[in-house]
Amino acid sequence: MTARSDIQAITDRIRERSRSGREAYLARITDAAGKSANRAVLGCGNLAHGFAVCTPQEKIALSGDTVPNLGIVTAHNDMLSAHQPFETFPALIKQAAREAGGIAQVAGGVPAMCDGVTQGMPGMELSLFSRDVIAMAAAVGLSHNMFDAAVFLGVCDKIVPGLVIAALTFGHLPAVFVPAGPMTSGLPNDEKARVRQLYAEGKVGRAELLEAESKSYHGPGTCTFYGTANSNQMLMEIMGLHTPGASFVNPGTPLRDALTKEAARRALAITRLGNAYTPVGRMIDERAVVNGVVGLHATGGSTNHTIHLIAMAAAGGIRLTWQDISDLSEAVPLLARVYPNGLADVNHFAAAGGMGFLIRELLDAGLLHEDVQTVWGEGLRAYAVEAKLGTDGSVVREAAPATSGDEKVLAPFAKAFRPTGGLKVLAGNIGHAIIKTSAVKPERHVIEAPARVFHSQQGLNDAFRAGELTGDFVAVVRFQGPKANGMPELHKLTTVLGILQDRGQRVALVTDGRMSGASGKVPAAIHVTPEALEGGAIGKIRDGDMVRLDATAGTLELLVPATELALRPQAGADLSENEFGFGRELFAGFRHLAGRADQGASAFGNAA
After folding, report:
1. Name one Pfam family in it (predicted).
2. Taking the model in full, what pTM does it have?
3. How far is Cα 521 from Cα 498, in angstroms, rounded to an integer?
4. Which residues does the annotation place in the binding site for [4Fe-4S] cluster?
5. Would you list which residues are annotated within the binding site?
6. Among the CATH numbers 3.90.180.10, 3.40.50.11540, 3.50.30.80, 3.40.50.720, which is that of 423-599?
Protein backbone atom coordinates (compact mmCIF):
# COMPACT_ATOMS: atom_id res chain seq x y z
CA MET A 1 0.00 0.00 0.00
CA THR A 2 1.06 3.60 -0.54
CA ALA A 3 1.16 6.05 2.32
CA ARG A 4 -1.89 8.16 3.01
CA SER A 5 -1.93 11.57 1.34
CA ASP A 6 -1.30 13.54 4.56
CA ILE A 7 1.67 11.35 5.47
CA GLN A 8 3.00 11.67 1.93
CA ALA A 9 2.61 15.45 1.98
CA ILE A 10 4.70 15.77 5.15
CA THR A 11 7.30 13.42 3.67
CA ASP A 12 7.41 15.48 0.47
CA ARG A 13 8.00 18.73 2.32
CA ILE A 14 10.82 17.13 4.35
CA ARG A 15 12.36 15.89 1.10
CA GLU A 16 12.10 19.29 -0.54
CA ARG A 17 13.49 21.12 2.49
CA SER A 18 16.37 18.64 2.66
CA ARG A 19 17.15 18.50 -1.05
CA SER A 20 20.48 20.31 -1.12
CA GLY A 21 21.83 18.75 2.07
CA ARG A 22 20.68 15.28 1.10
CA GLU A 23 22.20 15.51 -2.37
CA ALA A 24 25.52 16.62 -0.92
CA TYR A 25 25.42 13.79 1.63
CA LEU A 26 24.65 11.13 -0.98
CA ALA A 27 27.47 12.44 -3.15
CA ARG A 28 29.88 12.09 -0.21
CA ILE A 29 28.97 8.50 0.56
CA THR A 30 29.05 7.57 -3.13
CA ASP A 31 32.53 9.02 -3.32
CA ALA A 32 33.55 7.13 -0.18
CA ALA A 33 32.30 3.83 -1.53
CA GLY A 34 33.96 4.30 -4.90
CA LYS A 35 37.35 5.66 -3.93
CA SER A 36 38.58 4.74 -0.53
CA ALA A 37 36.30 2.45 1.45
CA ASN A 38 38.12 -0.83 1.03
CA ARG A 39 41.18 -2.57 2.40
CA ALA A 40 42.90 -2.49 -1.00
CA VAL A 41 43.94 1.12 -0.43
CA LEU A 42 45.78 0.24 2.78
CA GLY A 43 49.56 -0.10 2.67
CA CYS A 44 51.15 -3.35 3.74
CA GLY A 45 52.11 -1.96 7.15
CA ASN A 46 48.61 -0.60 7.70
CA LEU A 47 47.03 -3.90 6.79
CA ALA A 48 49.47 -5.90 8.89
CA HIS A 49 48.47 -3.88 11.94
CA GLY A 50 44.79 -4.37 11.10
CA PHE A 51 44.91 -8.16 11.05
CA ALA A 52 47.89 -8.87 13.32
CA VAL A 53 45.88 -11.07 15.72
CA CYS A 54 43.90 -12.91 13.02
CA THR A 55 44.51 -16.52 12.04
CA PRO A 56 46.69 -17.25 9.01
CA GLN A 57 43.61 -18.11 6.98
CA GLU A 58 41.92 -14.84 7.99
CA LYS A 59 45.04 -12.87 7.07
CA ILE A 60 45.02 -14.37 3.60
CA ALA A 61 41.33 -13.55 3.22
CA LEU A 62 41.69 -9.98 4.50
CA SER A 63 44.68 -9.23 2.29
CA GLY A 64 42.29 -8.75 -0.62
CA ASP A 65 38.75 -7.56 -1.10
CA THR A 66 37.05 -10.87 -1.76
CA VAL A 67 35.95 -11.87 1.75
CA PRO A 68 33.72 -9.48 3.71
CA ASN A 69 34.91 -8.24 7.08
CA LEU A 70 32.28 -7.23 9.59
CA GLY A 71 33.06 -4.49 12.12
CA ILE A 72 31.46 -4.87 15.54
CA VAL A 73 30.79 -1.66 17.47
CA THR A 74 29.73 -2.54 20.99
CA ALA A 75 28.33 -0.59 23.92
CA HIS A 76 28.88 -3.49 26.32
CA ASN A 77 29.50 -2.90 29.98
CA ASP A 78 28.33 -4.99 32.90
CA MET A 79 26.90 -2.20 35.01
CA LEU A 80 24.01 -1.46 32.65
CA SER A 81 21.45 -4.24 32.75
CA ALA A 82 20.51 -3.56 29.12
CA HIS A 83 24.10 -3.80 27.88
CA GLN A 84 25.48 -6.63 30.02
CA PRO A 85 24.13 -9.29 27.61
CA PHE A 86 26.34 -7.88 24.85
CA GLU A 87 29.34 -9.51 26.56
CA THR A 88 28.70 -12.74 24.65
CA PHE A 89 27.53 -11.23 21.36
CA PRO A 90 30.93 -10.72 19.64
CA ALA A 91 31.71 -14.43 19.94
CA LEU A 92 28.32 -15.32 18.45
CA ILE A 93 28.81 -12.82 15.64
CA LYS A 94 32.31 -14.07 14.86
CA GLN A 95 31.06 -17.66 14.77
CA ALA A 96 28.19 -16.74 12.45
CA ALA A 97 30.57 -14.77 10.22
CA ARG A 98 32.94 -17.73 9.88
CA GLU A 99 30.06 -20.05 9.06
CA ALA A 100 28.93 -17.61 6.36
CA GLY A 101 32.38 -17.38 4.83
CA GLY A 102 33.25 -13.99 6.29
CA ILE A 103 35.23 -12.49 9.13
CA ALA A 104 34.21 -10.27 12.05
CA GLN A 105 36.35 -8.06 14.26
CA VAL A 106 35.45 -5.82 17.17
CA ALA A 107 36.04 -2.39 15.63
CA GLY A 108 35.68 -0.55 18.91
CA GLY A 109 33.70 0.07 22.04
CA VAL A 110 31.63 3.09 22.95
CA PRO A 111 30.62 4.42 26.38
CA ALA A 112 27.15 3.68 27.66
CA MET A 113 25.85 5.51 30.68
CA CYS A 114 22.65 4.73 32.53
CA ASP A 115 20.33 7.66 33.10
CA GLY A 116 18.60 5.59 35.76
CA VAL A 117 21.81 5.66 37.82
CA THR A 118 22.59 9.33 37.22
CA GLN A 119 19.06 10.77 37.66
CA GLY A 120 19.32 13.81 39.89
CA MET A 121 23.10 13.41 40.15
CA PRO A 122 25.91 15.51 38.60
CA GLY A 123 26.66 12.77 36.08
CA MET A 124 23.31 13.38 34.40
CA GLU A 125 24.78 16.58 32.99
CA LEU A 126 26.98 14.43 30.74
CA SER A 127 24.09 12.34 29.49
CA LEU A 128 22.85 14.22 26.44
CA PHE A 129 26.36 14.94 25.19
CA SER A 130 27.28 11.28 25.61
CA ARG A 131 25.28 10.76 22.42
CA ASP A 132 27.81 12.80 20.45
CA VAL A 133 30.72 11.15 22.26
CA ILE A 134 29.32 7.75 21.28
CA ALA A 135 29.07 8.83 17.64
CA MET A 136 32.68 10.01 17.76
CA ALA A 137 33.91 6.86 19.50
CA ALA A 138 32.19 4.65 16.93
CA ALA A 139 33.72 6.75 14.16
CA VAL A 140 37.18 6.15 15.60
CA GLY A 141 36.62 2.40 15.45
CA LEU A 142 35.32 2.46 11.89
CA SER A 143 37.98 4.90 10.69
CA HIS A 144 40.48 2.04 10.30
CA ASN A 145 38.84 1.31 6.96
CA MET A 146 39.03 -2.44 7.49
CA PHE A 147 35.32 -3.17 7.21
CA ASP A 148 32.71 -3.94 4.57
CA ALA A 149 29.73 -3.61 6.94
CA ALA A 150 29.09 -2.94 10.60
CA VAL A 151 26.85 -4.28 13.33
CA PHE A 152 26.00 -1.97 16.21
CA LEU A 153 25.32 -3.36 19.68
CA GLY A 154 23.39 -0.80 21.69
CA VAL A 155 20.06 -0.33 23.43
CA CYS A 156 19.63 2.60 25.78
CA ASP A 157 18.89 6.28 25.81
CA LYS A 158 21.72 8.13 24.05
CA ILE A 159 23.54 5.03 22.84
CA VAL A 160 21.34 4.12 19.89
CA PRO A 161 20.99 7.69 18.59
CA GLY A 162 24.76 8.10 18.84
CA LEU A 163 25.33 4.85 16.99
CA VAL A 164 22.85 5.85 14.28
CA ILE A 165 24.69 9.15 13.81
CA ALA A 166 27.94 7.20 13.43
CA ALA A 167 26.38 4.69 11.05
CA LEU A 168 25.06 7.47 8.83
CA THR A 169 28.40 9.26 8.95
CA PHE A 170 29.85 6.05 7.48
CA GLY A 171 26.79 5.81 5.25
CA HIS A 172 28.60 3.93 2.49
CA LEU A 173 28.71 0.87 4.78
CA PRO A 174 25.73 -1.40 5.43
CA ALA A 175 24.68 -1.29 9.08
CA VAL A 176 22.60 -3.72 11.12
CA PHE A 177 21.56 -2.91 14.68
CA VAL A 178 21.47 -5.77 17.15
CA PRO A 179 19.38 -5.44 20.34
CA ALA A 180 19.79 -7.32 23.60
CA GLY A 181 16.11 -7.38 24.57
CA PRO A 182 14.14 -6.42 27.68
CA MET A 183 14.54 -7.97 31.11
CA THR A 184 11.71 -10.21 32.22
CA SER A 185 8.82 -8.55 34.04
CA GLY A 186 9.37 -7.73 37.68
CA LEU A 187 7.47 -5.52 40.10
CA PRO A 188 4.74 -3.76 38.10
CA ASN A 189 5.68 -0.23 37.12
CA ASP A 190 2.59 1.30 38.72
CA GLU A 191 3.48 -0.37 42.05
CA LYS A 192 7.04 0.96 41.79
CA ALA A 193 5.64 4.46 41.18
CA ARG A 194 3.31 4.08 44.20
CA VAL A 195 6.21 3.23 46.51
CA ARG A 196 8.24 6.15 45.14
CA GLN A 197 5.38 8.49 45.95
CA LEU A 198 5.02 7.07 49.46
CA TYR A 199 8.75 7.56 50.02
CA ALA A 200 8.59 11.17 48.81
CA GLU A 201 5.77 11.77 51.30
CA GLY A 202 7.80 10.20 54.11
CA LYS A 203 5.36 7.29 54.54
CA VAL A 204 7.91 4.53 53.83
CA GLY A 205 11.66 4.42 54.36
CA ARG A 206 14.68 3.93 52.15
CA ALA A 207 14.72 0.17 52.76
CA GLU A 208 11.21 -0.23 51.38
CA LEU A 209 12.01 2.02 48.42
CA LEU A 210 15.20 0.11 47.56
CA GLU A 211 13.34 -3.20 47.79
CA ALA A 212 10.70 -1.98 45.34
CA GLU A 213 13.26 -0.55 42.93
CA SER A 214 15.32 -3.75 43.05
CA LYS A 215 12.28 -5.89 42.30
CA SER A 216 11.51 -3.67 39.32
CA TYR A 217 15.06 -3.51 37.90
CA HIS A 218 16.13 -7.04 38.71
CA GLY A 219 18.18 -8.69 35.97
CA PRO A 220 19.77 -8.53 32.51
CA GLY A 221 17.97 -6.60 29.80
CA THR A 222 16.33 -3.29 29.16
CA CYS A 223 14.13 -1.71 31.83
CA THR A 224 10.59 -2.78 31.02
CA PHE A 225 8.82 0.59 31.02
CA TYR A 226 8.39 2.37 27.69
CA GLY A 227 11.05 5.03 27.99
CA THR A 228 13.76 6.08 25.59
CA ALA A 229 15.56 2.72 25.58
CA ASN A 230 12.56 0.74 24.40
CA SER A 231 11.51 3.59 22.10
CA ASN A 232 14.96 3.16 20.52
CA GLN A 233 14.29 -0.50 19.84
CA MET A 234 10.91 0.27 18.29
CA LEU A 235 12.58 2.86 16.05
CA MET A 236 15.32 0.53 14.86
CA GLU A 237 12.75 -2.06 13.82
CA ILE A 238 10.22 0.25 12.18
CA MET A 239 13.05 2.06 10.34
CA GLY A 240 14.34 -1.27 9.01
CA LEU A 241 17.66 -1.37 10.90
CA HIS A 242 16.82 -4.50 12.90
CA THR A 243 16.03 -7.85 11.39
CA PRO A 244 12.25 -8.45 11.55
CA GLY A 245 10.89 -9.24 14.99
CA ALA A 246 14.19 -8.72 16.81
CA SER A 247 13.37 -5.87 19.20
CA PHE A 248 11.63 -7.35 22.23
CA VAL A 249 13.02 -10.86 22.69
CA ASN A 250 14.44 -11.43 26.18
CA PRO A 251 18.22 -11.88 26.59
CA GLY A 252 19.73 -15.21 27.47
CA THR A 253 17.26 -17.19 25.34
CA PRO A 254 17.98 -19.43 22.34
CA LEU A 255 15.87 -17.16 20.13
CA ARG A 256 17.90 -14.12 21.16
CA ASP A 257 21.13 -15.87 20.22
CA ALA A 258 19.67 -17.09 16.93
CA LEU A 259 18.59 -13.54 16.05
CA THR A 260 22.08 -12.23 16.85
CA LYS A 261 23.77 -14.75 14.57
CA GLU A 262 21.21 -14.08 11.86
CA ALA A 263 21.94 -10.34 12.06
CA ALA A 264 25.64 -11.03 11.47
CA ARG A 265 24.89 -13.18 8.44
CA ARG A 266 22.56 -10.57 7.05
CA ALA A 267 25.13 -7.78 7.46
CA LEU A 268 27.66 -9.85 5.49
CA ALA A 269 25.09 -10.51 2.77
CA ILE A 270 24.48 -6.82 2.02
CA THR A 271 28.06 -5.61 1.50
CA ARG A 272 29.49 -4.31 -1.78
CA LEU A 273 31.05 -7.74 -2.32
CA GLY A 274 27.63 -9.32 -2.91
CA ASN A 275 24.57 -8.69 -5.03
CA ALA A 276 22.43 -6.99 -2.38
CA TYR A 277 24.56 -3.96 -1.46
CA THR A 278 22.55 -1.83 0.98
CA PRO A 279 24.51 1.18 2.22
CA VAL A 280 22.77 2.55 5.29
CA GLY A 281 23.07 6.15 4.09
CA ARG A 282 20.83 5.43 1.12
CA MET A 283 18.55 3.10 3.07
CA ILE A 284 17.67 5.69 5.71
CA ASP A 285 15.89 8.33 3.66
CA GLU A 286 13.00 10.72 4.31
CA ARG A 287 10.47 7.88 4.19
CA ALA A 288 12.34 5.84 6.80
CA VAL A 289 12.59 8.90 9.08
CA VAL A 290 8.85 9.54 8.77
CA ASN A 291 8.18 5.87 9.55
CA GLY A 292 10.21 6.29 12.73
CA VAL A 293 8.20 9.34 13.81
CA VAL A 294 4.92 7.54 13.04
CA GLY A 295 6.03 4.62 15.21
CA LEU A 296 6.96 7.00 18.01
CA HIS A 297 3.47 8.50 18.01
CA ALA A 298 1.60 5.23 17.63
CA THR A 299 3.35 3.81 20.71
CA GLY A 300 3.42 6.94 22.88
CA GLY A 301 7.21 6.94 22.83
CA SER A 302 9.88 9.04 24.44
CA THR A 303 9.94 12.82 24.23
CA ASN A 304 13.74 12.56 23.99
CA HIS A 305 13.27 11.57 20.37
CA THR A 306 11.99 15.03 19.50
CA ILE A 307 15.68 15.87 19.93
CA HIS A 308 17.38 12.65 18.84
CA LEU A 309 15.43 12.04 15.64
CA ILE A 310 16.34 15.52 14.42
CA ALA A 311 20.04 14.87 15.10
CA MET A 312 19.89 11.39 13.56
CA ALA A 313 18.17 12.66 10.42
CA ALA A 314 20.67 15.52 10.10
CA ALA A 315 23.53 13.00 10.01
CA GLY A 316 21.97 11.69 6.79
CA GLY A 317 21.44 15.13 5.26
CA ILE A 318 17.72 15.25 6.19
CA ARG A 319 16.10 18.26 7.88
CA LEU A 320 13.37 17.15 10.25
CA THR A 321 11.60 19.77 12.39
CA TRP A 322 9.42 19.85 15.48
CA GLN A 323 6.55 20.97 13.27
CA ASP A 324 6.91 17.83 11.16
CA ILE A 325 6.82 15.73 14.33
CA SER A 326 3.79 17.63 15.64
CA ASP A 327 1.87 17.39 12.36
CA LEU A 328 2.52 13.66 12.15
CA SER A 329 1.22 13.32 15.70
CA GLU A 330 -2.08 14.82 14.58
CA ALA A 331 -2.35 12.16 11.85
CA VAL A 332 -1.32 9.08 13.85
CA PRO A 333 -3.50 7.42 16.51
CA LEU A 334 -2.18 5.96 19.76
CA LEU A 335 -2.26 2.16 19.49
CA ALA A 336 -0.19 1.11 22.52
CA ARG A 337 -0.64 1.58 26.24
CA VAL A 338 2.70 0.78 27.87
CA TYR A 339 3.85 2.37 31.14
CA PRO A 340 3.87 5.34 31.74
CA ASN A 341 1.00 5.58 29.23
CA GLY A 342 -0.64 2.48 30.72
CA LEU A 343 -0.07 -0.29 33.25
CA ALA A 344 1.55 -2.85 30.92
CA ASP A 345 5.27 -3.26 30.29
CA VAL A 346 7.09 -4.02 27.03
CA ASN A 347 6.87 -7.77 27.61
CA HIS A 348 3.09 -7.46 27.73
CA PHE A 349 3.27 -5.36 24.56
CA ALA A 350 5.30 -8.07 22.81
CA ALA A 351 2.95 -10.81 24.02
CA ALA A 352 -0.06 -8.89 22.70
CA GLY A 353 1.38 -8.89 19.18
CA GLY A 354 4.28 -6.49 19.47
CA MET A 355 5.99 -4.80 16.59
CA GLY A 356 4.64 -7.15 13.92
CA PHE A 357 1.03 -6.40 14.82
CA LEU A 358 1.71 -2.69 15.17
CA ILE A 359 3.50 -2.41 11.82
CA ARG A 360 0.78 -4.31 10.01
CA GLU A 361 -1.97 -2.11 11.47
CA LEU A 362 -0.10 1.07 10.52
CA LEU A 363 0.70 -0.21 7.02
CA ASP A 364 -2.90 -1.23 6.36
CA ALA A 365 -4.04 2.22 7.50
CA GLY A 366 -1.61 3.91 5.09
CA LEU A 367 0.34 5.54 7.90
CA LEU A 368 3.72 4.06 6.98
CA HIS A 369 5.78 4.01 3.82
CA GLU A 370 5.89 0.38 2.76
CA ASP A 371 8.26 0.89 -0.18
CA VAL A 372 11.39 1.53 1.87
CA GLN A 373 14.68 -0.27 1.86
CA THR A 374 15.49 -2.31 4.95
CA VAL A 375 18.41 -4.45 6.05
CA TRP A 376 16.18 -7.43 5.34
CA GLY A 377 16.17 -6.54 1.65
CA GLU A 378 12.41 -6.18 1.32
CA GLY A 379 9.88 -3.46 2.02
CA LEU A 380 8.43 -2.85 5.45
CA ARG A 381 5.66 -5.42 4.99
CA ALA A 382 8.30 -8.07 5.74
CA TYR A 383 8.34 -6.71 9.31
CA ALA A 384 4.65 -7.49 9.96
CA VAL A 385 5.75 -10.79 11.46
CA GLU A 386 6.59 -12.57 14.68
CA ALA A 387 10.02 -14.18 15.08
CA LYS A 388 10.15 -17.66 16.61
CA LEU A 389 12.71 -20.40 17.12
CA GLY A 390 12.61 -23.19 14.55
CA THR A 391 13.13 -26.83 15.39
CA ASP A 392 16.66 -26.64 13.97
CA GLY A 393 17.56 -23.66 16.14
CA SER A 394 17.19 -21.08 13.37
CA VAL A 395 14.84 -18.13 13.27
CA VAL A 396 11.48 -18.69 11.60
CA ARG A 397 8.85 -16.06 11.05
CA GLU A 398 5.10 -16.18 11.05
CA ALA A 399 2.60 -13.53 10.07
CA ALA A 400 1.71 -11.24 12.95
CA PRO A 401 -1.46 -12.35 14.76
CA ALA A 402 -4.70 -11.20 13.16
CA THR A 403 -6.01 -9.90 16.47
CA SER A 404 -4.35 -8.31 19.48
CA GLY A 405 -3.66 -10.62 22.37
CA ASP A 406 -4.75 -7.84 24.73
CA GLU A 407 -6.59 -4.81 23.38
CA LYS A 408 -5.95 -2.95 26.65
CA VAL A 409 -2.26 -2.98 25.75
CA LEU A 410 -2.15 -3.02 21.94
CA ALA A 411 -5.16 -1.85 20.01
CA PRO A 412 -6.09 -2.40 16.37
CA PHE A 413 -6.32 0.74 14.27
CA ALA A 414 -10.12 0.66 14.39
CA LYS A 415 -10.08 0.76 18.20
CA ALA A 416 -7.25 3.23 18.79
CA PHE A 417 -6.87 4.54 22.33
CA ARG A 418 -6.65 8.10 21.07
CA PRO A 419 -7.02 9.70 17.64
CA THR A 420 -3.61 11.39 17.90
CA GLY A 421 -0.16 10.46 19.09
CA GLY A 422 0.00 12.93 21.93
CA LEU A 423 3.22 14.81 21.12
CA LYS A 424 2.65 18.43 20.32
CA VAL A 425 4.58 21.64 19.75
CA LEU A 426 3.61 24.56 21.97
CA ALA A 427 4.33 28.10 20.79
CA GLY A 428 3.94 31.50 22.38
CA ASN A 429 5.81 34.41 23.89
CA ILE A 430 7.83 32.03 26.14
CA GLY A 431 9.18 30.27 23.04
CA HIS A 432 8.63 26.83 21.56
CA ALA A 433 8.29 23.65 23.62
CA ILE A 434 7.23 20.03 23.39
CA ILE A 435 4.45 18.46 25.42
CA LYS A 436 3.51 14.80 25.67
CA THR A 437 -0.19 14.45 26.44
CA SER A 438 -0.74 10.72 25.94
CA ALA A 439 -0.61 10.05 29.71
CA VAL A 440 -2.20 13.37 30.78
CA LYS A 441 -5.94 13.43 31.44
CA PRO A 442 -7.82 15.76 29.06
CA GLU A 443 -9.08 17.94 31.92
CA ARG A 444 -5.45 18.85 32.64
CA HIS A 445 -4.51 19.86 29.09
CA VAL A 446 -5.09 23.51 29.98
CA ILE A 447 -3.43 24.96 33.09
CA GLU A 448 -3.38 28.66 33.96
CA ALA A 449 -1.70 29.45 37.26
CA PRO A 450 0.97 31.66 38.87
CA ALA A 451 4.59 30.77 38.28
CA ARG A 452 6.96 29.36 40.89
CA VAL A 453 10.47 29.84 39.53
CA PHE A 454 13.47 27.60 40.26
CA HIS A 455 16.97 27.28 38.84
CA SER A 456 17.32 23.57 39.62
CA GLN A 457 15.14 20.55 40.27
CA GLN A 458 16.72 20.39 43.73
CA GLY A 459 15.30 23.84 44.47
CA LEU A 460 11.80 22.65 43.69
CA ASN A 461 12.21 19.46 45.71
CA ASP A 462 13.49 21.47 48.68
CA ALA A 463 10.44 23.73 48.47
CA PHE A 464 8.22 20.65 48.43
CA ARG A 465 9.85 19.21 51.56
CA ALA A 466 9.47 22.57 53.27
CA GLY A 467 5.72 22.54 52.53
CA GLU A 468 5.95 25.68 50.39
CA LEU A 469 4.25 24.35 47.25
CA THR A 470 0.64 25.07 48.05
CA GLY A 471 -2.22 26.01 45.75
CA ASP A 472 -2.20 25.89 41.98
CA PHE A 473 1.05 26.82 40.24
CA VAL A 474 3.21 26.37 37.17
CA ALA A 475 6.71 25.25 38.12
CA VAL A 476 9.28 27.03 35.96
CA VAL A 477 12.62 25.23 36.13
CA ARG A 478 15.15 27.06 33.97
CA PHE A 479 18.86 27.16 33.16
CA GLN A 480 18.55 23.46 32.33
CA GLY A 481 19.20 23.70 28.57
CA PRO A 482 22.08 22.25 26.53
CA LYS A 483 24.31 25.31 26.88
CA ALA A 484 23.58 25.86 30.56
CA ASN A 485 24.32 22.44 32.00
CA GLY A 486 23.97 19.82 29.29
CA MET A 487 20.15 19.54 29.50
CA PRO A 488 19.79 16.83 32.16
CA GLU A 489 16.57 14.89 32.57
CA LEU A 490 14.54 16.32 35.43
CA HIS A 491 12.98 12.97 36.25
CA LYS A 492 13.09 13.64 39.99
CA LEU A 493 10.30 16.18 39.51
CA THR A 494 7.84 13.57 38.27
CA THR A 495 7.09 12.13 41.70
CA VAL A 496 6.80 15.48 43.51
CA LEU A 497 4.51 17.10 40.96
CA GLY A 498 2.46 13.91 40.77
CA ILE A 499 1.89 14.00 44.53
CA LEU A 500 0.72 17.61 44.41
CA GLN A 501 -1.58 16.85 41.50
CA ASP A 502 -3.05 13.88 43.36
CA ARG A 503 -3.74 16.20 46.30
CA GLY A 504 -6.04 18.20 44.04
CA GLN A 505 -3.71 21.02 43.06
CA ARG A 506 -3.58 22.08 39.44
CA VAL A 507 0.10 22.00 38.55
CA ALA A 508 2.24 22.02 35.44
CA LEU A 509 5.92 22.23 34.51
CA VAL A 510 7.68 24.61 32.12
CA THR A 511 11.39 23.95 31.60
CA ASP A 512 14.22 24.27 29.11
CA GLY A 513 15.39 20.87 30.38
CA ARG A 514 14.24 17.35 29.53
CA MET A 515 11.80 14.96 31.20
CA SER A 516 12.64 11.79 29.24
CA GLY A 517 10.61 8.82 28.10
CA ALA A 518 9.17 8.64 31.60
CA SER A 519 7.19 11.86 31.10
CA GLY A 520 3.94 11.08 32.84
CA LYS A 521 0.63 12.35 34.10
CA VAL A 522 1.57 15.97 34.89
CA PRO A 523 1.36 18.42 31.95
CA ALA A 524 4.94 19.42 31.13
CA ALA A 525 6.16 21.92 28.53
CA ILE A 526 9.71 20.72 28.06
CA HIS A 527 12.71 21.54 25.83
CA VAL A 528 11.70 25.24 25.91
CA THR A 529 13.64 27.01 23.15
CA PRO A 530 15.43 29.42 23.24
CA GLU A 531 16.81 28.32 26.60
CA ALA A 532 17.33 30.78 29.44
CA LEU A 533 21.10 31.02 28.96
CA GLU A 534 20.57 32.07 25.33
CA GLY A 535 18.26 34.91 26.32
CA GLY A 536 15.00 33.01 26.00
CA ALA A 537 11.90 34.54 27.51
CA ILE A 538 11.76 31.75 30.09
CA GLY A 539 14.56 33.72 31.74
CA LYS A 540 12.22 36.70 32.26
CA ILE A 541 9.49 34.88 34.18
CA ARG A 542 9.07 36.00 37.80
CA ASP A 543 7.39 34.36 40.76
CA GLY A 544 3.67 35.11 40.65
CA ASP A 545 3.46 35.80 36.89
CA MET A 546 0.47 34.07 35.34
CA VAL A 547 1.43 31.36 32.88
CA ARG A 548 -1.01 29.61 30.57
CA LEU A 549 -0.17 26.19 29.13
CA ASP A 550 -2.81 25.12 26.60
CA ALA A 551 -2.07 21.73 25.06
CA THR A 552 -5.37 21.84 23.17
CA ALA A 553 -4.62 25.09 21.34
CA GLY A 554 -0.87 24.43 21.28
CA THR A 555 0.14 27.62 23.12
CA LEU A 556 2.51 28.52 25.93
CA GLU A 557 2.06 32.10 27.12
CA LEU A 558 3.37 34.35 29.84
CA LEU A 559 0.39 36.59 30.61
CA VAL A 560 2.42 39.77 30.95
CA PRO A 561 1.97 42.78 28.65
CA ALA A 562 4.45 42.76 25.78
CA THR A 563 5.69 46.24 26.66
CA GLU A 564 6.48 45.20 30.23
CA LEU A 565 8.12 41.96 29.12
CA ALA A 566 10.37 43.79 26.66
CA LEU A 567 11.72 46.01 29.45
CA ARG A 568 12.37 43.20 31.91
CA PRO A 569 16.00 42.20 32.46
CA GLN A 570 17.06 38.64 31.87
CA ALA A 571 17.53 36.61 35.04
CA GLY A 572 21.00 35.43 35.85
CA ALA A 573 22.10 32.20 37.43
CA ASP A 574 25.29 30.98 39.06
CA LEU A 575 26.21 27.92 37.02
CA SER A 576 29.72 27.52 38.41
CA GLU A 577 28.79 24.36 40.30
CA ASN A 578 27.80 22.75 36.99
CA GLU A 579 31.22 23.29 35.46
CA PHE A 580 33.40 20.92 37.48
CA GLY A 581 33.26 17.49 39.02
CA PHE A 582 32.21 14.10 37.66
CA GLY A 583 33.88 14.94 34.36
CA ARG A 584 31.79 18.03 33.67
CA GLU A 585 34.92 20.14 33.09
CA LEU A 586 35.76 17.90 30.12
CA PHE A 587 32.44 18.77 28.50
CA ALA A 588 32.79 22.55 28.52
CA GLY A 589 33.38 22.52 24.77
CA PHE A 590 30.19 20.56 24.21
CA ARG A 591 28.16 23.06 26.23
CA HIS A 592 29.68 25.90 24.22
CA LEU A 593 28.97 24.26 20.85
CA ALA A 594 25.58 22.75 21.59
CA GLY A 595 22.78 23.65 19.23
CA ARG A 596 19.22 24.34 20.21
CA ALA A 597 16.92 21.54 21.33
CA ASP A 598 14.72 21.96 18.25
CA GLN A 599 17.81 21.48 16.07
CA GLY A 600 18.97 18.30 17.78
CA ALA A 601 21.09 19.85 20.57
CA SER A 602 24.19 18.57 18.83
CA ALA A 603 27.76 19.73 19.23
CA PHE A 604 28.26 18.89 15.54
CA GLY A 605 25.79 21.52 14.30
CA ASN A 606 22.92 20.75 11.96
CA ALA A 607 24.64 18.89 9.15
CA ALA A 608 21.51 18.99 6.99
Report:
1. ILVD_EDD_N
2. 0.94
3. 7
4. 156, 223
5. 156, 223
6. 3.50.30.80
